């Protein structure tokens, strides 16, 4: 077994063919900066970021619906704080609130049950946004709504799944050599979820934790596989991730949700990449139907190229000049978990 120092030395001295590795988790992106990972590896090993933030890929039209609900009489939008500044085609929820919109920030979806039961004259719309990591709690929320016979609480969903997105990237981008698989999502879906992708596209997929040494070990595994022409799924986060995933959580997801096509802001339509409420639960749906949204990116914005791994955020002409967290022009800057938001926070002064 290699020591951490040996791993560092070999990665720093790597002089083989260039390797491009994509991480598809905002927490990994943050940890790479926090631990100075790029400074510890060879310049021939390039780390790039993918669509790791569900808020950032949420369609503008979805935000528009939330804004409209917040401005309706006797309606209230319930949301997490990271959705407040995500702009739709005209306004974000913060701006809607400033002109009289009714918006309440929650810390847990289950708080919505208590609020709705205590205020039966108000129709509540919960902004259910996320990947597989948060979808199980929305399933529990539906269960609680049903159990308590709550009629004034519905969900507007923008729930996305990571495997179709990674498959889309593999189909359209041939210069990515390997993937650092998202640890949080893998806790739910399991490492085996990537087996088919590894076999089909002949790329290593390595599941990693979030400490610096975890990421270095995963990069070392990827380099080792590529040097030996191996293309396997390797789970290096075994204390949290199993091969099959969280069966109970997956069962809850399958009970209340079904797969559907969806629009990813900055990318476009990805087939079978969303989770919608099943027909038998549509009474709890506030209008989360699939629409072929057609959004034109802001002039000069290169978020699509960032999300697909073609460029790093600092290569976009708007980055940190016109596009900042306080004036987010592109979708990747709208959240602190978005790749551009992370790069902005860690940019050199």
From TrEMBL:
The keyword Iron applies. GO terms for molecular function: 4 iron, 4 sulfur cluster binding; carbon monoxide binding; iron ion binding. InterPro entries: Hyd_form_HypD, HypD_1, HypD_2_sf. This is Hydrogenase expression/formation protein HypD. NCBIfam families: hypD. The lineage of its organism: Bacteria, Bacillati, Bacillota, Clostridia, Lachnospirales. PANTHER family: HYDROGENASE MATURATION FACTOR HYPD, HYDROGENASE PROTEIN ASSEMBLY PROTEIN HYPD. Belongs to the HypD family. Coiled coil: none annotated. It comes from the Bacteria.
């Amino acid at each position: 077994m290699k020591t951490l120092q040996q791993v560092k030395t070999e990665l720093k001295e790597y002089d083989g063919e260039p390797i491009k590795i994509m991480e598809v988790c905002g927490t990994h992106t943050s940890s790479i900066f926090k631990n100075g990972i790029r400074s510890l590896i060879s310049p021939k090993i390039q780390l790039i970021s993918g669509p790791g933030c569900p808020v950032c890929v949420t369609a503008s039209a979805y935000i528009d619906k939330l804004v409209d609900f917040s401005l309706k009489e006797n309606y209230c939008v319930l949301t997490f704080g990271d959705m407040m500044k995500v702009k739709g085609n005209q306004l974000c929820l913060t701006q809607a609130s400033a002109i009289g919109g009714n918006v309440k920030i929650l810390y847990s979806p289950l708080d919505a049950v208590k609020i709705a039961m205590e205020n039966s004259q108000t129709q509540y719309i919960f902004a259910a946004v996320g990947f597989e990591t948060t979808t199980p709690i929305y399933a529990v929320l539906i269960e609680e709504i049903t159990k308590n016979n709550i009629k004034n609480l519905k969900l507007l969903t923008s729930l996305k799944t990571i495997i179709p997105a990674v498959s889309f990237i593999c189909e359209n981008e041939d210069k990515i050599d390997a993937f650092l698989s998202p640890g949080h999502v893998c806790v739910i879906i399991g490492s085996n979820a990537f087996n088919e992708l590894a076999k089909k596209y002949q790329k290593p997929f390595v599941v990693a934790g979030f400490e610096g040494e975890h990421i270095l070990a995963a990069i070392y595994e990827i380099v080792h596989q590529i040097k030996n022409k191996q293309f396997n799924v390797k789970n290096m986060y075994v204390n949290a991730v199993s091969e099959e995933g969280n069966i109970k959580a997956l069962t809850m997801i399958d009970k209340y949700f079904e797969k559907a096509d969806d629009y990813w802001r900055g990318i476009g339509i990805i087939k079978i990449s969303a989770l919608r409420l099943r027909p038998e639960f549509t009474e709890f749906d506030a209008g989360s139907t699939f629409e072929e949204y057609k959004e034109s990116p802001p002039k000069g914005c290169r978020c699509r190229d960032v999300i697909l791994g073609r460029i790093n955020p600092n290569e976009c002409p708007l980055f940190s000049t016109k596009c900042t967290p306080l004036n987010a022009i592109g979708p990747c800057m709208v959240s602190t978990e978005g790749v551009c938001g992370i790069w902005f926070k860690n940019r050199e002064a």
